[in-house]
Amino acid sequence: MIGAVKVISGTAHPELAQDICTCLGVDICRSTVVRFSNENMLVQIDENVREADVFVIQPSCPPVSDGIIELLMTIDALKHASAGRITAVVPYFPYARSDKKDRPRISITARLMADLLQTSGADRILTMNLHSPQVQGFFRIPADQLQAAPILCDYLRETRDLTNHVLVAGDVGESKDVGHYADRLDLPIAIVDKRRHGDDEVARAVNLIGDVKGKIALIVDDEVASGGTLVEAARFVLERGALAVEACVVHPVLSGRAIERIEASPIRQLVVTDTIPLREEAKRCKRIRQLSIAGLLAETMLRISNEDSVSSLFME
């Protein structure tokens, strides 16, 4: 039999781990991470986890490579400490965009990350809003993918009148995921047709499928990195007659000059979740509103521990 639930926080997002523990009514399991002068690392579990049901909270955020190694070492330490079951809770999965071989002689790194987690000793994976659905198929162990749509849609319904809104997919690939929002909010959809050239992380909008004229455009995407694509889409829909632009994004990567771009953009509010921690600059940005996923993760972890259905969580 699997024992009591224990939650271990990596160094990537201790605030999220603490919020999850508050929801579960448990304390964070004590652990130590030491970084040596030669850039090696040591991870030690500081309490008994024998036969425990352990959840390791560690999303992918800077420094990404250090965070991945820390997660693998933590799982390995738990395995050799005889933990009953180990679930890697990775709300923002590392290298999720590297999900296909779209140029010669490259690594499909999302699959590599899945293999490394299993090899290190993880028994399950819990993540949220993967960049593409095929990434879930890279795992040879059970992998649950949560959707942030319920949390984001509840907030939108509670804070604004949506009768004159239209959902906008940032690109054609995002249109299917926007359907989760459209079903819950009963709103029409428009799609920005954009093209990406090279590795500059900036895509150019070339066409709009659907109608935004005289409406408030709500751009939905799974993540915002440099902000270039999001700002480009906002300006594009305004040129096509939208009255105003708002945005709803799950993973707030916000790298490089993203905050500067957003503050100079016509986007009047950017709603994100706390799958990864916000930079201090982002916390000071009044246009950004961050919502907590701790309650959803805590409920899912409890269901996993009790062997209850996770999929039914999204049918309720």
SSE inventory with pairings:
Layout: E1 5-9, H1 14-24, E2 31-35, E3 41-45, E4 53-57, H2 64-80, E5 85-90, H3 109-120, E6 124-128, E7 143-146, H4 149-159, E8 165-169, H5 175-185, E9 189-196, E10 203-209, E11 216-224, H6 228-239, E12 244-252, H7 258-263, E13 267-273, H8 280-283, E14 288-291, H9 294-305
Parallel strand pairs: 1-4, 4-5, 5-6, 6-7, 8-9, 8-11, 11-12, 12-13, 13-14
Antiparallel strand pairs: 2-3, 9-10
Helix pairs in contact: 1-9, 4-5
Our measurement of the CA-to-CA distance between the termini, rounded to an integer number of angstroms, reads 29 Å
Main CATH class of the largest domain: Alpha Beta
Structural class: alpha/beta
Count of discrete structural domains: 2
Helix count equals 9
**What's the β-strand tally?**
14
Strand content range: 25-35%
The level of helicity is 25-40%
Give unreliable regions as ranges.
none
CATH architecture of the largest domain: 3-Layer(aba) Sandwich
What would you call the quaternary organization?
A: single chain
Provide a descriptive summary of the structure in words.
The protein has 316 residues and is an alpha/beta fold. The chain folds into two domains: 5-147 and 294-314, 3-Layer(aba) Sandwich (Rossmann fold); 149-291, Rossmann fold (3-Layer(aba) Sandwich), CATH 3.40.50.2020. It contains nine helices and 14 strands. The strands form three sheets. It has a seven-stranded mixed sheet with strand order 10-9-8-11-12-13-14, sandwiched between helices. The protein has a five-stranded parallel sheet with strand order 1-4-5-6-7, sandwiched between helices. A hairpin with a 6-residue loop joins strand 9 and strand 10. Helix 1 (14-24) crosses helix 9 and helix 4 (149-159) crosses helix 5. The two termini are 29 Å apart. The mean pLDDT is 93.
